[in-house]
Amino acid sequence: MVSTESKSGAAALTDCSSDPAGATQIHGSFDVPGNIARLPLPLRLPYDRNPNFCGREDVLSAIEARLAPHADSDGLRTFSIYGLGGMGKTSVVTEFVYKYQSCFDAVLWVRVDDIAKLDESFSRIAVELQLVQAVDTLDRVIRRNLVLDWTCEPRRATIPEGGEAGNYVKLAKWLLVFDHADNITLLGDYWPKAAINGSILVMSRDSLTKTKLASHHKIQLGHLDSVVRGQLILNITASDGHVIIRPRPDLGVYP
Ligand SMILES: Nc1ncnc2c1ncn2[C@@H]1O[C@H](COP(=O)(O)OP(=O)(O)O)[C@@H](O)[C@H]1O
Ligand SMILES: [Mg+2]
């Protein structure tokens, strides 16, 4: 069962091919690339796309409606998914990212298991966005703040029509995924408070995500319904659609 909660009305139609308003060229030229990322980033997720993924269309649509960049806003969009372990949070978010990857210039995946994982993720992202060099020995807090600062003005190099490469920047469209955010309080120092032109997706077992992230759109993930579960079994067994379930009275098991 899936229950949804939302604080505002229907989202505008998504247009992944065009920039949101205000996200066009913001500087004519620049001398010091500094915090200007070279984007789009190649998609690097900790999980492969699941070829057996099925169902959850309502959840995918809800996330898309809320998080895909819209032509009328360069603000911050947020969404959280909460539910017990094993319900499929990571699966549906992974499917969402693969399906809608063209909507974003950068997908930044963060593990929130503990502070060490958070720092590790932010350090990797700082390198991926080329805010620091891989060999940099910068402090973990500095690396984290470089990423957070970038989300406040997420500049990316771009090539305008007829222009020279690297002479212009525009706002990037980014998605930040907080996975395993079971302890929401850990997010405090890692939450991009003043970010713009981006989307944040939080996955958590903590039903209190509901209240702790009160201003967010959110969805509770329950069990897959029985039809989808049947489909999943067919997918996994690559069956032709005929599933034979034999009773095992010896085990006390009946279909
Ligand atoms: N919609 C789905 N389609 C196919 N497999 C799924 C689906 N949802 C979950 N699974 C499978 O169920 C298992 C647990 O899902 P997972 O996404 O890791 O749950 P959670 O992140 O909520 O702990 C995984 O092995 C995954 O492959
Ligand atoms: Mg998970």
What compounds sit in this structure? Answer: adenosine-5'-diphosphate, magnesium ion
Strand content: 15-25%
Identify low-pLDDT runs. Answer: 1-15, 17-33, 251-255
Number of domains: 1
- Tally the beta strands: 9
**Helical run tally:** 6
Give the structure's gist in a few sentences:
The protein is of the alpha/beta class and 255 residues long.
Descriptors for this entry?
single chain; 255 residues; alpha/beta; Rossmann fold; 6-stranded mixed beta sheet; 3-stranded antiparallel beta sheet; disordered N terminus; disordered C terminus; binds adenosine-5'-diphosphate; binds magnesium ion
Please characterize this protein's 3D structure:
This protein is 26% helix and 18% strand. A six-stranded mixed sheet has the order 1-9-3-8-7-4. Strands 2-6-5 form a three-stranded antiparallel sheet, with no helix packed on it. Helix 1 crosses helix 2 and helix 3 crosses helix 4. The relative contact order is 0.22. The protein starts with a strand and ends in an 18-residue tail after the last helix. The protein has a single domain, classed as P-loop containing nucleotide triphosphate hydrolases (Rossmann fold). The longest helix has 14 residues, at 115-128. It is globular. By secondary structure, the protein is an alpha/beta fold. The protein has helices spanning 57-67, 89-100, 115-128, 140-152, 209-212, 226-237, and strands at residues 2-5, 25-27, 76-82, 106-111, 155-158, 168-171, 174-179, 198-204, 217-221. Magnesium ion (MG) binds next to helix 2.
